[in-house]
Design goal:
The complex is a heterodimer of chains A (116) and B (114). Chain A has 116 residues and is mainly β. Chain A has no helices and 11 strands. In chain A, strands 2, 4, 5, 6, 9, 10 and 11 form a 7-stranded mixed sheet that branches. A 4-stranded antiparallel sheet of chain A has the order 1-3-8-7, with no helix packed on it. With 114 residues, chain B is an all-beta fold. In chain B, strands 2, 4, 5, 9, 10 and 11 form a 6-stranded mixed sheet that branches. Chain B has a 5-stranded antiparallel sheet with strand order 1-3-8-7-6, with no helix packed on it. The mean pLDDT of chain B is 92. The chains are: A mainly beta (116), B mainly beta (114). The interface between A and B is medium-sized, with 28 and 28 residues.
Chain lengths: 116, 114
């Protein structure tokens, strides 16, 4: 069973640029969430996608946007990058809900973005 | 919205000793409380979780307790080993509301000294 995979693992951008991060969810998982983890802090929820639609969003501005594709993979796009956007971006997937499913999140290893 | 606090921020113990990390949450609607371990350069990995209808759960050397009245939950690691060294995060969520996010605490850096 393949886990959550993210790409790229590291990237460097300059202020004002745009970035796209990619995530392949774990097999059978139809819900994907994105989290931002600043250095020394806990992950912060950006948004969640289910059946190709955003169904939950944290306190992030509209320049953070996303997509989910029919195969449940997902993209996170950030426009007009700011220095404070430097962080580890984590993708997490979860299996279909209901029954005994606890809603556990399965995280990828993240994409580390540095904005100069 | 939900707010999760976590203490201590750093914790050093001798190998074989116990470690305890405590978290509090603010939203009484939260009913699912996972603990994640994050090793350097890796994503968080679930180590144990507890639902609000249970007061305690144990898995080998790891246990979690939940006090819903006081809105706090704790992670207990016994017989610590060097490989337990990592950053640990608690989180709170509403299990059945999949549009709702997980709110994580700020993390505890555990160092197990040989």
């Amino acid at each position: 069973e393949t886990g959550v995979t993210q790409s790229p693992t590291h990237l460097i951008k300059t202020r004002g640029q745009q970035v796209t991060l990619r995530c392949s969810s774990q097999s059978g998982h139809n819900t994907v969430s994105w989290y931002q983890q600043a250095l020394g802090q806990g992950p912060q929820f950006i948004f969640q996608y289910y059946r190709e639609e955003e169904n939950g969003r944290g306190n992030f501005p509209p320049r953070f946007s996303g997509l989910q594709f029919p195969n449940y993979s997902s993209e996170l796009n950030v426009n007009a990058l700011e220095l404070d956007d430097s962080a580890l971006y984590l993708c997490a997937s979860r299996p279909p809900g209901g029954g005994s499913n606890t809603g556990e999140l399965f995280f990828g290893e993240g994409s580390r973005l540095t904005v100069l | 919205g939900e707010n999760v606090e976590q203490h201590p921020s750093t914790l050093s113990v001798q190998e074989g000793d116990s470690a305890v990390i405590k978290c509090t949450y603010s939203d009484s609607a939260s009913n699912y409380f996972p603990w994640y371990k994050q090793e350097l350069g890796k994503g968080p990995q679930l180590i144990i979780d507890i639902r609000s209808n249970v007061g305690e759960k144990k898995d080998q050397r790891i246990a979690v307790t939940l006090n819903k009245t006081a809105k706090h939950f704790s992670l207990h690691i016994t017989e610590t080993q060097p490989e337990d060294s990592a950053v640990y995060f608690c989180a709170a969520s509403h299990r059945y509301n999949y549009g709702q996010n997980f709110v994580f605490g700020p993390g505890t850096r555990l160092s197990v000294l040989p």
